[in-house]
Amino acid sequence: MTRAERDLVAALRAELAGIDPARPCDRAAEAAGLGAGAVARDGPAARLAVRLRRTTTDDPAIEAFDWGRAADHCRSAWLRGRFLARGSLSLASGRTHLEFVVPADEAPVLAARLHDLDLPASWRIRRGRGVVTWKSAESVGTFLRRVGAGGALLELEARQVSRALRGELNRVLNAESANLQRAVSAAGRQLDAIAILDGDGRLATMSYTVRTVAAARRETPEATLSELAERSGLHRSAVQRSLERIETLALHDDEGAGRRTVRRTALA
To answer: Would you say 130 and 159 are in contact if contact means Cβ atoms under 8 Å apart?
Structure first.
């Protein structure tokens, strides 16, 4: 991740760790999510663990939290603690990836609890540890909003929108550049063909439409087909056919080249 992305993840964790639950049950649930005797990996989470222990009479383990009977706000508090203790968020290369690394036997339990909240996640065992994962930015955003990371989430979403807009702009610019390159190449071929036909006198013998298009192309080499059509007072399709005929005839010595020859077979 870039430094800006790491700073955003750090700000998100600090925001979550700074939440001070008003309900005693939420405090107990969040402490249970952190885990009994858990050693936090960063300062904000470590201070949260100390703060919760001061206001919680028990030292609750994961098993002490009754998910099935817990209120919705208690479940959110537990998940917040679990994320701070066992979760990580990656924003590298524009991809959002959130995972929990937990004991192997907890992975299916945690995945089932997330499914209860309409936040289905995949899980697997990796080097003896359970890994519960989201790779969907939408799922990650829903989870972070649920556990209280509103401020950091707004910044994350703003960055994702900005990245998407930059990607779309680059796509459009690349497409326009490719179209321009093709147009320049085609105009060059057409000018060369016109010069060949003019040099051997064949251009003067061609139809008024073809000669008009050739003159317009010479006068405005950079013009598009639509612009040539407007300049010549012709339909765009007529301009395109004229230019194709000019290019075809420039490759051959006779004016009949490039036309379809119809073979008539006598009937017996």
So the answer is: no
Residue 98: beta bridge partners?
89, 134
Contacts of 40 (CB under 8 A, 6+ apart): 34, 46, 48, 49, 84, 85
Could you give the domains of the chain?
3-148 (3.10.28.10), 171-250 (no CATH)
Interatomic CA distance for residues 165 and 247, integer angstroms: 40
**Residue 35: half-sphere exposure toward Cβ, Cα within 13 Å:** 16
Q: CA-CA distances (angstroms) from residue 140 to 44, 73, 119, 171, 234?
A: 21, 18, 9, 26, 56
Residue 192 tokens read as 């060369």
Model confidence pLDDT, tens digit, residues 235-260: 999 999 999 999 999 887 655 444 44
Structural tokens at position 116:
């209860």
CA–CA gap between residue 105 and residue 37 (Å, rounded) = 19
Specify which residues 123 forms β-bridges with. 132
Backbone angles phi, psi at 99, to 5 degrees: -145, 150
29 vs 65: CA distance, rounded Å: 7
- Which two structure tokens, joined as six digits, stand for 49? 């663990």
In the predicted structure, residue 169 carries a pLDDT above the cut 60: yes
